[in-house]
Design a protein that fits this description.
The protein is built from 7 helices and 11 strands. By secondary structure, the protein is an alpha+beta fold. The longest helix is centred in the middle third of the chain and has 15 residues.
């Protein structure tokens, strides 16, 4: 079991805890209430935050205290609505800082782009996870977004709309995290992919997609 640093609603801990329970599987909505009492480095604007924040933990504290999930927007960004050419833009970090509201891809964009500005050596990237699809009010949902970063040769994950204020790690590989996350979410993960952008693009050698064939481990698909 890996150690994880977490900032929970009523369980604000300055250290490491073990998470073993499962989440409600069909939604990317936070499993616990936002905690406005969490201590974090406050800033009056996004530009000021870029001057004040120095680490993933600083971003994480702000997320724990401020992030709210937008259910209606999640459906607008569903695969069903995108297939109808209903394009919805992803919130820019400064906009997200002001509204404090969005879905997983808004949160991950905020995490990646902010961390690149304050700590580029941590190599922040998007982690796109494809689950077995679920239908919510006639809309197909399958993709979920988080942020990966590196520290002392280990991999960490954060900016997860399901667990705002949670930093998972250290992990020796993304595969190790995926196995644990699949159990936590209670949904089968079909594939996952580490990306430099949330925007749809052609795969490159540096952007491998991992798929899980039936009854086997993860296999890289180039």
């Amino acid at each position: 079991m890996h150690k994880v640093f977490a900032l929970f609603g009523l369980f604000f801990l300055g250290g490491f805890v073990i998470l073993s329970h499962s989440a409600e599987p069909s939604s990317d909505e936070p499993e616990y209430a936002r905690d406005p009492t969490v201590v974090f480095k406050a800033a009056a604007s996004y530009e000021q935050a870029l001057q004040v924040w120095k680490s993933p933990e600083d971003i994480n504290g702000w997320i724990a205290a401020n992030f709210s999930y937008d259910r209606a927007r999640a459906l607008q960004l569903s695969e069903t609505q995108r297939a109808k050419n209903k394009r919805v833009s992803i919130h820019e970090p400064a906009e997200f800082f002001d509204t404090k509201t969005g879905v997983c891809v808004d949160l991950s964009r905020f995490g990646v782009e902010t961390l690149k500005r304050i700590d580029p050596s941590s190599d922040p990237r998007y982690l796109m996870i494809e689950f077995d699809p679920v239908q919510v009010k006639g809309n197909m949902l399958r993709l979920h977004w988080l942020v990966s970063f590196k520290r002392e040769g280990k991999i960490y994950l954060f900016a997860d709309s399901k667990r705002p204020g949670h930093i998972g790690g250290p992990y020796n590989s993304l595969e190790a995290f995926i196995i644990e996350y699949e159990q936590y979410r209670g949904r089968k993960i079909v594939s996952f992919r580490e990306l430099n952008s949330y925007e749809k693009q052609r795969k490159t050698q540096a952007q491998k997609q991992y798929q899980r064939p039936p009854d086997t481990g993860m296999e890289p698909i180039h």
